[in-house]
Amino acid sequence: MPVLIAAVVLVGSLCTLDLLLTLGVVKRLREHTELLAKVSENMPGMPPVIGVGEEVGEFTAVAVDGAVLTRESLRGDTLVAFFSPNCEPCHEMLPHFVAYARARGGGPERVLAVVVGAADLAAEQVEALRPVARVVVEGSDTALTTAFRVKGFPTVLRLTQDGHGHAVVAQNRVNLDSPAVAA
């Protein structure tokens, strides 16, 4: 009988030790998952932009047609894109973006396109975007890229309004290959 009791105590001790080690491993895995999530936010290829649900910062910008745009002028469901004339992926994405914006409906009032670069270099992209979007060329004034926390190009976002009427990010990785939903 003492041998049986010793065996039960030994098995119970081993199970308790195994449980403690398993809990320790789970805790370490959670810590590593959080660290990997933080690192992946800044990895190349990931859109380094404002997060989903975050409010767009204050800005004032003048569109190429002379209209003054502010954060408050972004009403309802708005598609926002940032391009650069020096960015090859921007040139590849531009026709897809124009087709998506056209299919989406709502007109230029529901689409904001920002071309970041010198005006003479941005002219080709501006002309392609004008039929479907309010277009802003951003040179040394980076009010829009700062408000949207854009650090890479191309970037395409979809905005909506929260319960207080503030422009917030609904999507920060808009898939231009998926069918556009009319606004």
Structure in a nutshell:
By secondary structure, the protein is an alpha/beta fold. Helices cover 39% and strands 19% of the residues. This is Thioredoxin domain-containing protein.
Q: Which second-level CATH architecture of the largest domain applies?
A: 3-Layer(aba) Sandwich
Query: Tally of extended strands?
Result: 7
Please state how the strands of the largest beta sheet are arranged side by side.
Answer: 5-4-3-6-7
Calculate Rg over CA atoms: 25 Å
Share of helix among residues?
25-40%
Q: Note the beta-strand portion.
A: 15-25%
Arithmetic mean of pLDDT? 89
Which fold does the CATH topology of the largest domain refer to?
Glutaredoxin
Descriptive notes:
The mean pLDDT is 89. It is built from 4 helices and 7 strands; from the N terminus they run H-E-E-E-H-E-H-E-H-E-E. Strands 5-4-3-6-7 form a 5-stranded mixed β-sheet. The chain has a two-stranded antiparallel sheet with strand order 1-2. Strand 6 and strand 7 (167-171) form a beta hairpin. The protein starts with a helix and ends in a 12-residue tail after the last strand. The protein is elongated and about 95 Å long. The protein has helices at residues 2-40, 88-104, 119-129, 143-147, and strands at residues 60-62, 68-70, 78-83, 111-116, 134-138, 155-161, 167-171. The longest helix has 39 residues, at 2-40. The chain has 183 residues and is of the alpha/beta class. The chain folds into 2 domains: 1-46; 54-171, Glutaredoxin (3-Layer(aba) Sandwich), CATH 3.40.30.10. This is Thioredoxin domain-containing protein. InterPro entries: Thioredoxin-like_sf, Thioredoxin_CS.
